[in-house]
Amino acid sequence: MAQKTVLRKPRGFIDVYKHKPGAEKDRTHYCPGCGHGILHKLIAEALEDFDLVEKSIVISPVGCSVFAYYYFDTGNLQVAHGRAPAVASAVSRANPDSVVISYQGDGDLAAIGGNNILQAANRGENMVVFFVNNAIYGMTGGQMAPTTLEGQKTTTTPYGRNIRTDGYPIQMCELINQLTAPVYIARTSLHDMPNIRKTRAAVRKGIQNAMNRKGFSFVEVLSMCPSGWKMDAVQSQNWIKENMIPRFPLDTYRDNSDQPYTVERPVPIMDPEEVRKILGFGSLKTANLRQNPDAVLRKVALRVSGFGGQGIMSTGIALANVGMEYGYNVSWLPSYGPEMRGGTANCSVKVQEETIGAAECTEPNMVIAMNQPSLEKFEKILVPDGVLMYNSTLIDIEPTRKDIKVYPVPITGMADELGDTRVQSMVSVGAFAAVTGMFDPGEIKSLMPVLFAGKSDKVMKLNEDAVQMGYDYVKDNFS
Ligand SMILES: Cc1ncc(C[n+]2csc(CCOP(=O)(O)OP(=O)(O)O)c2C)c(N)n1
Ligand code: SF4
Ligand SMILES: [Mg+2]
User: Fold this and answer.
1) Residue 360 is part of a domain; what is its CATH number?
2) Lowest CB count within 10 Å: 72, 289, 343, 347, which one?
3) 154-201: per-residue pLDDT in tens?
4) Is residue 21 a part of any domain in this protein?
5) Looking at ligand 1, which atom is closest to the CA of residue 108?
6) Does 421 lie in the same domain as 278?
7) Any residues with Cβ below 6 Å from ligand 2, and which?
C-alpha cells in the first residue's frame, strides 16, 4: 500500500519558534524519544484539520511542557503548577466559543493539581485535558510522581517505589470515571505506531468535544521519558508496553460524545455599569473626572493600616473607587491575616495609569498609619522618598526614617470634631488628595452619590465635610 509521508509542519504549530531562546528555532526543546513532541504534533494536526487554530487556547503547565507556548500557534497561557484546569475553566467560561486545551504532566495534574483536575472534571467544564503520564517528574530530574510504578526507581525512590511508604500509583482515568459530569475519558499510549494512531483518534475526539461544547474530555496518554527513566528511546517504548500498560490499561472508559447535551454557561456580564448596578453601587462616572497632570504622585502603591474598626478597609475601598472614577487603574487587596485579631489590619491599594500586576504593595510609596503598631510595621517597608501619613491623634512617637516625607495628620481628632469617628476614612481620603494632588476635593464630593449610594443626605454631607477637612488640614500645615 502506498504511503504518504507528511513532512511539513501542521498549521497548529508556529512556523518559526521565535519565542524559544537560542539559535535552534525549528525544533522543540524535548529530549530525543520523548512523547511530548508526538502528542504536540497530533494536537497541532487536529487543530489544522478542524480549522481551530484561531479559536483554540492552550494552557501549558509547569513540567517539561511548560514551553508548549513556544510551539502552538494558538492563544497561549502558561500557568502555575497544577492550576491549568482552574485557569482553563475561567478561560472557557469567559470565551465560550473557544476550544480550551489543558495540557498537563502527571506531577502537575495528579500531585500538586490533584484537586484542581477533580473539581474541573466534576463541574463538567467545557475543555479537553491532555494528561501526559510518563510516570515521573521529567522536568526536575526524575523524581517520583503519583503515577510512578511500584518498584520503579526514581531519584526520590532509589530502591524502587514502595507501596508501604509511597502508596500506590494513581490511576487518573479510573478516578475521574467515578464522576458523573465528564463526557469522554480515554487512556492511550505513544509507544508504537498502532497506539499513536489510537492516540490520534482520542485527541481528535477530545478536541471535537470541546468544539461542540460537549463538556469535559480527559485523554490520558502514556508517554516515554527516556531521560527520566535512564533508557534509550527503544527501551522506553518497550518499558511502556511491558510495565506501564499492565498498571494503566488502555481503554475508552467513557464516551458520551454522541449525546445531544451541550454545555451552556450563563454569559458573564462584562459591562461595568451593569456590574455596578447588580452590586448596588451608583453609576460609574469614569472619564468625567480629569486626572491632574501636575499631581505630585501619579502612581500610588499604598498601605493603609490600623486597628480593626478604624475604617482601614473602607479607606482603601474609597480611595480605589475615587481613583477608578478618575480613570486610573486601581486595585484593593485586604489582608485578613491573624493580625486582624487585635494587631494591625491593613490593605494594599494601587492607583496608577499603567496596568497593575501584583495587587499587594510589598514596597509601598505611601503608607497611612492609623495606629502605632502600624507605623512601626510599615514605616520600614516604605521606599526611599516615600510618603508616611500618620494619625497624630493616636500616635505619639516620631517616625525614625529620615529619607521619607512625613505628614502627621490628626485623622481621628478631625472625625471626632465632626461628631462621628467613622468618617475617619473620608478624612484620610481628603488628606490623601492634598498630599498626592491626584484628586480634587470638590470632585470627590461630587462622587458622594456614587460612593454612598442609598445613604441619606445627612451622611453624604458629613462625609463631604470630612473630605474637605482632611484636605484643608494638609494644605494649611504642609504647603
Ligand atoms: C509550586 C511548584 N512546586 C514545585 C515545582 C517544581 N516542579 C517543576 S516541574 C515539576 C513536576 C513536573 O513533572 P510532570 O508534571 O510529571 O511533568 P513532566 O516534566 O514529567 O512532563 C515540579 C515538581 C514548581 N515549579 N512549582
Ligand atoms: S525529561 Fe522526559 S519528559 Fe522531559 S523532555 Fe526529556 S524525555 Fe521528555
Ligand atoms: Mg511526568
Assistant:
1) 3.40.920.10
2) 343
3) 999 999 999 999 999 999 999 999 999 999 999 999 999 999 999 999
4) no
5) 15
6) yes
7) 30-31, 34, 36, 64, 134, 138-139, 225-228
Provide the residue range defining the domain that includes 174.
Answer: 35-255
225 and 364 housed in the same domain: no
Cα angle 112, 115, 116 (rounded to 5 degrees) comes to 85
Q: State how far the alpha carbon of 341 is from the alpha carbons of 243, 307, 372, in Å.
A: 55, 9, 16
Compute the distance from residue 140 Cα to the ligand 1 centre, in Å. 6
pLDDT of residue 339: 47
Nearest to 259 by CA among 330, 185, 183: 183
Tell me the pLDDT tens digit for each residue of 388-402: 999 999 999 999 999
State how far the alpha carbon of 228 is from the alpha carbons of 64, 113, 141, 331, 361, in Å: 11, 21, 6, 44, 41
Give the number of domains in the chain. 2
Residues 88, 220, single domain; the answer is: yes
Domain at 202, CATH number: 3.40.50.970
Instruction: Locate the DSSP E strands across 17-140.
Output: 56-60, 75-78, 99-105, 127-133
Cα 23 to the center of its chain, rounded Å: 32
Query: Which residues share a beta bridge with 218?
Result: 129, 185
Measuring from atom 5 of ligand 2, which residue has the nearest CA?
30
Could you say which ligand is closest to the alpha carbon of residue 108? Answer: 1
Q: How far is CA 39 from CA 61, 72, 171, 200, 375, in A?
A: 15, 12, 20, 8, 56
How many other C-beta atoms are found inside a 10 Å radius of the C-beta of residue 471?
23
Find, among 462, 460, 442, the residue nearest to 451 by Cα: 460
